[in-house]
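Fig. S4 source data, part A: sequence.
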Amino acid sequence: MSKPHLLITGASGYLGTHLLTALAKNNKYDLTGLDIRTNSKFQKSTRFVEADLNNIDLLSKTLEGVDLICHCASLGKTTRINRPGGQPTTNNQFLITNIKGTQNLYKQAKEKGVNKIVLTSSIEVLSLGLQKENWPVNEHHVCWPDDSYGVSKNIQEIIARSFADSGSIQTLALRPCAFFPVNDPDRGFRLTGAHAMVEDIVNAHVAAVEVLLDEKRASDLNKFEAIFITNKLPYQNSDKNLIDSREKIKKLIRKYWPDHAEYVFDLGYKQAFFPCVYDISKAKRILNWEPLFNFDEWISYCKKNNLSFQDEKDQYKSKKSLKSRLKKIILKLKKGFGS
């Protein structure tokens, strides 16, 4: 029996590269990667198509014989395309890549009979100012994005829903939080807020592929399902009063990790990105997925490996001392001008 043929868009991007690596490990799939630039890492092991999603002819040819698409191709809030170092992505770039590109992909997929897509969406289809909402926030919450990026991801879901409603394409839209591995104290700080390790996000995508390729499991689902995939947080609805006026969560950390709070703060705690607590029970129910790496695992890893991060501590204390001295100088200058 032939192996399922998967197309991964955005295959040279951060998520796409990790996902291709994971899917190639067990040799269960025929894989094609598509991106605007070639990924040299997969030149020998994977068919690679260098193309833009707005190149309709090449996109149509690439979809021949494909059974399922993992649509990871999107621009984030900054882009390095023709802009070394990264610059803010413009509204027009969001329109061309995230929205028109997705629309083209779904249209061509329908024409070629590809009826299963795993869509990489984002928690940013919702507002990120949900600290006062009832936690955990689930997938039924009204989408009200804060910016152009969030709007583009929301429109991607709307496109997917329209093809689902017509019965032509089934989509699992995964809504990850920010994700990437960071091998320094910053890793731990982020895990106290909405952050996940890329390995966990990749595992959720692999699980979604397996669900859609299983006819029995797929048939039990709606044609469109949105699913939060984030790290697991212990915070409760009653904890909202512990978030200070600048939306910092030091008090939450002290409450839930009293034995480790000072360890975190000594390392130079930076404000964690924390829009709210997301309900990830749907991911468990549909994908049988849960994050493997949360804040507790990070602390255990640090203790087990005797990581003191002394260099980072020294840098933090040096910066803190410098800021304190600068503040004193500024205050003296203000008093001098005022006299």
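Fig. S4 source data, part B ends here. The two ends are 87 Å apart (CA to CA).
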